[in-house]
Design brief:
By secondary structure, the chain is of the alpha+beta class. It has 8 helices and 10 strands. It has an 8-stranded mixed β-sheet with strand order 3-4-5-6-10-9-8-7, sandwiched between helices. Helix 5 crosses helix 6. The longest helix is centred in the middle third of the chain and has 25 residues.
Length: 354
Amino acid sequence: MDNLNQNYMPGQNQMPNNQPQNGGVPPVPPPPSVKVRTMESDYKSMNESGGQPPVPEKVIVPPSDPNVKFSNFNAPSQEPTFKPAPKSSSVQPSIPPTNIAKKKSPVVLIIIFLVIIALVVGAYFGYSYFFAQPSQPATAPTPFVSVPTPAPVVVPTSTPAPATTTPALIHKSFFTVSAVQTIPVSFNPADGILGLKTALVTAISSNATSGLYEAVVSDKSGNALSSSVVLPIITSSMPSSSVAVYFQPDFTLFLYKDAQGIWPGYVLALSSTSSMNLALALSAKVESAADLANFYLSDPGTFAAFKDGKLGTYSTRYAVSANKDAFNYGFFGSYLILSDSYNGMKAAVANLGL
């Protein structure tokens, strides 16, 4: 009995040795229970539990009956479908909204501003450090080694003439005894004999005392003119190339004044390489020159043939014009004197110290 009582449960018929009742037919097992969740059960469970999660409802499934169709079994009543009510724009919520967004503190704004400044400054110095070109020190420049580049070979198309530079002429008088007065005379060589005569006529005033004057000839820029420039202007018998070979560039021009007028004269010095015979032959060409009158400031007329003359121990040559004007020339040591007047030649020789 004790063993039988231990396995006994209320509501069940117990037989010893598990023998079936009712003549050997086993009892029908109880119907199984199934947990079912519907919208209505969830709503009911949440209301009863005070808002706790819904608990499924236990439903006892009845035994299947072949005569009962499944579609008609335990069909739930017409359960309402949940549809939310349309939200009216005029209805205000019963609970006032909570001001979730709080105003930012000024301290936070200041910190954000300082962080931005720090980023900008850091970016500037970072760029300067990594990308900027370093400046070269002013006291110790980097030495530069220049590699010479070979000059290109230029083949000349023609042989250029050697450049010759004529040094500026510095005038120095040949007179060892000073003249009455030294007068500057300026004219443009391009103006020819007319320009020279005009400059000489106005060099001495009409009321000046008689005597020997020295004229320093220059161009309009103040550059002293050489003998190879002035003599060819006066006469074609003394070309520039010949004068430059036989005589020195510098010369002395004098003006002799007396009661009859002003008489120009020229003193030329032989060059160091000149031969006296060749210089004498050059000067002798003036005797046949058609422009002998150019030595005078006014027209002297036609000249007669040249004759031999004397001045002290020196031999001269002279010719007399129709106006009784005598042209004289001769060598006095290394000087050639060309004069419109015999008295003017005498005064020039005296001032040369001869």
